[in-house]
Design a protein that fits this description.
Strand content: under 5%
Helix content: over 70%
Radius of gyration: 29 Å
Number of helices: 3
Largest sheet: none
Distance between the termini: 44 Å
């Protein structure tokens, strides 16, 4: 008798655990949507970095081209300002990309 009671109790506990650990279809859909959103945010972060890098590289090339054609102080100052703008573009792009990645992490944490 005692063996049947323990087996029944263990079986009931196993069923209870199994039924509560499975996610419902709605929960799976919600988790998939959150994962998709997080993936998109990470993709946007990658693209933001690429775009900022390309813009900064273009500005640096422009600064270099300025220096080739003219060595005056005014041209040198303009080239320096262009390089500073390139650095700022790079930093801002990295900052924005980091924000997007943080948003992706926060989205995944909602699962």
């Amino acid at each position: 008798m005692k063996t049947k009671s323990i087996a029944t109790l263990l079986g009931a506990a196993a069923i209870a655990i199994a039924s509560t650990s499975c996610d419902s279809k709605q929960e799976e859909v919600r988790k998939d949507a959150l994962e998709t959103k997080a993936d998109q945010l990470e993709s946007n972060a990658d693209q933001t970095r690429k775009n900022a890098e390309a813009a900064a590289d273009q500005a640096e090339k422009q600064a270099s081209d300025m220096r080739k054609g003219d060595t005056s102080k005014a041209t040198e100052a303009a080239a320096d300002a262009t390089e500073n703008a390139a650095d700022a573009t790079r930093k801002e792009g990295e900052k924005r990309a980091d924000q997007l990645e943080n948003a992706a992490d926060a989205t995944r944490d909602q699962k």
